[in-house]
Amino acid sequence: MTDAELLAKVKTGLSVGGTYNDAQLQIKTSAVKGFMLNAGVTLDQLETDLGIATLTIGVTDIWNLSSGEVKFSDAFTLYLLPQLMAVSLPDEEE
Predict the structure, then answer these.
(1) Which domain holds residue 48?
(2) CB within 8 Å of 70: residues ≥ 6 apart
(3) What pTM did the predictor assign?
């Protein structure tokens, strides 16, 4: 999935139309995507419906930044991110 396609999906999840906020949203989408990849989410996992939803929640969390208050919500870090990783774990052989 290209960055433009990913941005379009995030914008749909945020109910944002037009292009006015595209530059800001692209920066935030890239930042959250990088965080998720560094946390162990694979690109394939990120591009699923659950992955896009998790990414969109992360973008929402950092949409309106306040000095010293940059953080992800519990919904992102405690519920969605671990769920995304657990759902996508490969089957283990016995």
Answers:
(1) 3-87
(2) 62
(3) 0.86
Contacts of 51 (CB under 8 A, 6+ apart): 36, 41, 45, 84
CB atoms within 10 A of CB 24: 11
Residue 27, CB-side half-sphere exposure with 13 Å CA sphere: 7
The total number of structural domains in the chain stands at: 1
Q: Is residue 94 part of a domain?
A: no
Condensed to tens digits (0 to 9), the pLDDT of residues 60-85 reads 999 877 777 778 888 988 888 888 88
pLDDT tens for residues 12-70? 999 999 999 999 999 999 999 999 999 999 999 999 999 999 999 999 999 877 777 77
**Angle in degrees, CA 87, 92, 94, rounded to 5:** 145
